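Work Package 3 (structural annotation) set out to generate three-dimensional models for the target panel prioritized at the project kickoff. During this period the team completed the workflow that converts sequence records into discrete structure tokens, so that structures can be stored uniformly alongside our sequence database. As a representative example, we reproduce one entry of 120 residues exactly as it appears in the project archive.
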Amino acid sequence: MNNDFLDPINANGMPNLADSLFALDFLMAAKNGVRNCAYALTEMASPEARALARKQLEQALALHDDISKLMMDRGWLHPYNVNEQFQLDIKSAETTVKIAGMKIFPDHTSRLGSFADLNN
């Protein structure tokens, strides 16, 4: 990766990186849904509400399982191999640092004069 953000070579692998990021975000949301359903289940008193919450919890667990399997199949998640997951996390962190170091925005970002003067 070079420092020219307009160079097409920097786009190599970006769709896969984006897909893995979206999948990870979806996985975290599903995990949060499981937690929320489980918590709600402990707060409900009526048997009907508990049955509904239990069904939603099962669906949330199934969704989490499906996303996890997809990520493992694509090589984006290695929950059973800490060394592989660690290497993947290191590569992700290095890529993030490289992208953050790219000069994407101009030095001069002042927008003074771009808006109507409200003081007059």
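The helical segments are 14-43, 47-74, 82-101.
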